[in-house]
């Protein structure tokens, strides 16, 4: 596996935490949710009945895999690049179908989590022994740069699971524009995006009664304790999710339940948290189809097709450069 070094990862983690906790209001980047425990918790979230996103996207890929193949089909060999591949649960539907149809492609799963990529690599070896796989353990753009240095085959990029929802609208726009820059004319991008719907349905997905999303959010505190020598008392924080139907933003916060100070050894710094002070940890933005069309054209893409589920909750939208 091509991988980023542990030291540079830890340095970046420490710098990001320092920046986020020194700002006002305080924030922490959601990408650090995904260590070994976070990966496992996210897999539990994907299986919760309240987290409709996985079932909807699974249905789209399962029922429309052949339409998707017809739409992206290339007469030449292509690289299937997946940004934030996770455990590949849904992608395996496409991989299996592409292999069965004798499509000439190589698979490049990209993920910042070393653990999840290793698990994916092992499960792919067992399930699809003939599949050519090169896991890239980097951030999205670092991985794309490496890939462009390695191989100039046409690309089909997958960005599933509504990962784009984790960006603000400005970052989503610049992300797609930057992505467009790394692609060649004719390359395709299939993005899974969660659609605006009944606000109660959305809020429940981030506030399940069994507390799995809470454990996922709180895992950031455990991770800073473990990896950065912080002394967060986890019981002094609570999980607070919100959804605003005007902006389409579901937000998760870690709320300090007391006045407290926390020391982070790697930074040799103490941070103060007031009673009821929120730390913003995650945004999961929902879009309308019109907003998605606008996002595509502003970033220089042509929308080829929207694949939606039977409830109209979720879309996998196919764009061309
Ligand atoms: C919400 S999960 C989705 C996984 C999968 N795409 C799915 O639909 O089930 C997000 C995945 O993206 C990875 N990830 C998050 N931010 C990343 C980044 N900046 N660069 C690379 N991977 C990232 C995480 O480690 C995690 O495995």
Explain how this protein is built.
With 321 residues, the protein is of the alpha/beta class. Strand 10 (260-264) and strand 11 (269-273) form a beta hairpin. It contains ten helices and 14 strands. The protein folds into two domains: 2-33 and 210-285, no CATH class; 52-197 and 287-320, Rossmann fold (3-Layer(aba) Sandwich). It is 41% helix and 24% strand. The longest helix has 21 residues, at 52-72. It has helices at residues 6-22, 36-46, 52-72, 91-100, 114-127, 140-150, 169-182, 199-205, 212-228, 289-298; strands spanning 2-3, 26-27, 78-83, 105-110, 136-137, 155-159, 188-194, 237-244, 249-256, 260-264, 269-273, 278-285, 302-308, 314-320. The mean pLDDT is 94. Strands 4-3-6-7-14-13 form a six-stranded mixed sheet, sandwiched between helices. The structure holds S-adenosylmethionine (SAM). Residues 31, 34, 42, 84-86, 89-90, 110-113, 116, 139-140, 160-161, 163 line the site of S-adenosylmethionine (SAM).
What's the layout of helices and strands?
Blueprint: E1 2-3, H1 6-22, E2 26-27, H2 36-46, H3 52-72, E3 78-83, H4 91-100, E4 105-110, H5 114-127, E5 136-137, H6 140-150, E6 155-159, H7 169-182, E7 188-194, H8 199-205, H9 212-228, E8 237-244, E9 249-256, E10 260-264, E11 269-273, E12 278-285, H10 289-298, E13 302-308, E14 314-320
Parallel strand pairs: 1-5, 2-12, 3-4, 3-6, 6-7
Antiparallel strand pairs: 7-14, 8-9, 9-12, 10-11, 13-14
Helix pairs in contact: 2-9, 3-4
The structure holds S-adenosylmethionine.
S-adenosylmethionine is lined by residues 31, 34, 42, 84-86, 89-90, 110-113, 116, 139-140, 160-161, 163.
């Amino acid at each position: 596996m091509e991988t980023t070094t542990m030291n540079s990862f830890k340095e970046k983690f420490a710098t990001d935490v320092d920046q986020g906790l020194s700002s006002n209001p305080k924030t922490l980047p959601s990408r650090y949710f995904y260590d070994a425990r976070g990966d496992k918790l996210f897999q539990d979230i994907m299986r919760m009945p309240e987290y409709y996103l996985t079932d909807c996207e699974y249905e789209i890929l399962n029922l429309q895999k052949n339409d998707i193949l017809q739409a992206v089909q290339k007469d030449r060999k292509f690289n299937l690049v997946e940004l934030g591949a996770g455990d590949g649960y849904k992608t395996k539907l496409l991989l299996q179908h592409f292999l069965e149809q004798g499509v000439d492609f190589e698979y490049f799963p990209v993920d910042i989590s070393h653990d999840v990529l290793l698990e994916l690599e092992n499960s792919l070896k067992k399930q699809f022994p003939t599949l050519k796989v090169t896991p890239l353990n980097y951030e999205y753009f670092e991985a794309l740069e490496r890939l462009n240095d390695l191989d100039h085959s046409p690309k089909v990029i997958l960005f599933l699971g509504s990962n784009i929802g984790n960006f603000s609208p400005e970052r989503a726009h610049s992300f797609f524009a930057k992505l467009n820059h790394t692609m060649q004319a004719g390359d395709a991008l299939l993005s899974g995006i969660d659609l605006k719907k009944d606000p109660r349905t959305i809020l429940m997905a981030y506030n399940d009664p069994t507390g799995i999303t809470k454990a996922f959010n709180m895992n950031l505190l455990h991770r800073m304790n473990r990896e950065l020598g912080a002394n967060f008392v986890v019981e002094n924080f609570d999980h607070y999710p919100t959804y605003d139907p005007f902006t389409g933003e579901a937000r998760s916060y870690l709320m300090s339940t007391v006045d407290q100070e926390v020391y982070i050894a790697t930074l040799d710094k103490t941070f103060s948290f007031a009673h009821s002070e929120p730390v913003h940890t995650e945004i999961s933005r929902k879009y309308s189809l019109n907003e998605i069309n606008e996002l595509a054209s502003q970033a220089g893409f042509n929308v080829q097709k929207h694949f939606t589920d039977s409830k109209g909750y979720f879309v996998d939208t196919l764009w061309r450069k």
